[in-house]
């Protein structure tokens, strides 16, 4: 066969393959194309569990926020910590004075002035944006019942009258919107969920001066009833780890439903889901600046928001662990800044607002600062990122592309699209 005939037939074959793939995976391809694609790369730092704590927590947080000031985005904005905040701890001393005990709380702004003032300072200078994590990092009714029974699992909380770290609780007890006192965990009644969320949103606004339009559930445990209650209280964005857990089974394992969530997906109550896709939890011994950067690079290639998960405990354990975690975070942010063009530091509620209203500027409602809107990808650059999402997410499609030769035009589109992004990542 002549070369000229091959040059005609091969593209024709690729067109036929593309039409066949589209007919087969139409719903998947359309859903992927309709997701948000960012030319300006949003960089979020999500840190769970800030709130009530010892005075050293305030000092550690102040140091962390000072380091964030050293990192600037393409608009001159400093890096910002989305501090997923717990508002209260059980007041064991007050509960001990009543028989039977009634659940009582010590709130962040009243009982823990040092950490609260540090958070307020970070809010004013723009290095911290609070986000509702929960009224507490446990279920109050279950805790009160165990407290009355002198259950050894809450003994430490009963002994400490000043400050107590809920991280000392068994993991199943740390769920907020489920009762994990026995396994399998039990779902809460709708009325209890409603009252808990209402009280949390009232106190959040009292403490921080503005309502939380976004939330992330403790232990990623929540269900449709929680989403409904959040929606009624103006919580429009839900931060996830790419899935939702509705409970824990008999062995303590998490029950995922749904098992997969993408950025921009909608909850049953209409909220926009956000997704963490870069893990930097060095105290766990599983994540380093190097592995986190590789995940950030994959997100960048797909024009996704780069959302870094780094829990409080990385910065509140031993002095050596704190210094190592902080140094690693600096290295990660420096490498991102040096290699990705047009990065934009912002918080979770701001990302949600940007997805919801693409043409509006970014506003930090907690200190009233404002920044330019995020730029969306269009044309061949969007097509390149779209193909990268298919590549990373769907191994079967990648195999078909290799076997059919469709990988050749796909790589051409990716090459041209990424050149237009001026990608220098290495």
What features would you describe in this structure?
Strands 1, 2, 5, 13, 14 and 15 form a 6-stranded parallel beta sheet that branches. A 3-stranded parallel beta sheet has the order 8-9-12, with helices on one face. It has helices at 3-24, 26-33, 55-68, 92-96, 108-111, 113-125, 140-148, 155-159, 190-208, 224-232, 289-301, 319-339, 348-356, 379-393, 395-404, 407-420; strands at residues 41-50, 81-86, 88-90, 105-107, 128-134, 178-179, 186-187, 214-215, 237-240, 245-248, 254-256, 272-275, 278-279, 306-309, 343-345, 362-364, 369-371. The chain is α/β, with parallel strands linked by helices and 426 residues long. The chain is globular and about 95 Å long. The protein has 2 domains: 3-34 and 378-420, no CATH class; 41-371, Alpha-Beta Barrel (TIM Barrel).
Structural class: alpha/beta
Spans of at least 5 consecutive residues with low confidence: none
Q: Assign a percent range to the helix content.
A: 40-55%
Major β-sheet profile: 6 strands, parallel
Strand content: 15-25%
Overall mean pLDDT stands at 93
In the CATH hierarchy, the third-tier topology of the largest domain is known as TIM Barrel
**Which CATH architecture of the largest domain is right?**
Alpha-Beta Barrel
CATH class of the largest domain reads Alpha Beta
**Number of beta-strand segments:** 17
């Amino acid at each position: 066969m002549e070369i000229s005939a091959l040059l005609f037939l091969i593209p024709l074959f690729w067109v036929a393959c593309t039409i066949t793939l589209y007919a087969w995976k139409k719903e998947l391809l359309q859903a992927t194309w309709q997701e948000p694609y960012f030319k300006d790369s949003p960089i979020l730092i999500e840190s769970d569990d800030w709130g009530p704590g010892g005075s050293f927590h305030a000092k550690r947080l102040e140091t962390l926020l000072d380091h964030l000031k050293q990192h600037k985005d393409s608009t001159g904005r400093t890096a910002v910590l989305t501090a997923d905040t717990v508002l209260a701890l059980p007041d064991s001393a007050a509960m001990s004075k009543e028989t039977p005990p009634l659940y009582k709380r010590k709130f962040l702004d009243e009982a823990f002035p040092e950490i609260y003032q540090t958070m307020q300072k970070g809010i004013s200078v723009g290095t911290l944006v609070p986000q509702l994590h929960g009224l507490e990092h446990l279920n109050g009714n279950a805790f009160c019942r165990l407290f009355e029974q002198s259950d050894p699992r809450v003994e430490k909380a009963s002994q400490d009258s000043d400050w107590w770290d809920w991280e000392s609780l068994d993991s199943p007890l740390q769920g907020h919107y489920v009762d994990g006192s026995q396994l399998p965990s039990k779902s809460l009644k709708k009325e209890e969920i409603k009252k808990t969320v209402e009280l949390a949103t009232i106190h959040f606004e009292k403490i921080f001066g503005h309502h939380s339009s976004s939330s992330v559930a403790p232990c990623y445990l929540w269900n449709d009833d929680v989403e409904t209650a959040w929606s009624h209280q103006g919580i429009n964005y839900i931060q996830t780890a790419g899935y939702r857990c509705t409970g824990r089974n008999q062995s303590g394992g998490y029950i995922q439903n749904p098992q997969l969530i993408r950025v921009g997906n909608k909850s049953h109550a209409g909220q926009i889901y956000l997704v963490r896709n870069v893990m930097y939890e060095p105290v766990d011994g599983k994540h380093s600046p190097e592995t986190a950067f590789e995940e950030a690079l994959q997100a960048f290639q797909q024009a996704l928001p780069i959302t870094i998960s780094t829990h409080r405990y990385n910065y509140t354990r031993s002095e050596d662990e704190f210094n190592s975690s902080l140094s690693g975070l600096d290295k990660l942010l420096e490498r991102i800044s040096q290699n990705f063009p047009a990065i934009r530091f912002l918080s979770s509620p701001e990302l949600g607002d940007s997805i919801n209203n693409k043409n509006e500027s970014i506003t930090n409602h907690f200190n009233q600062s404002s920044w330019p809107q995020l730029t969306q990808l269009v044309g061949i650059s969007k097509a390149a990122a779209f193909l990268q999402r298919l590549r990373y997410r769907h191994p079967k499609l990648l195999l078909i592309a290799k076997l059919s030769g469709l990988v050749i035009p796909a790589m051409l589109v990716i090459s041209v699209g990424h050149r237009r992004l001026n990608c220098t990542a290495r």
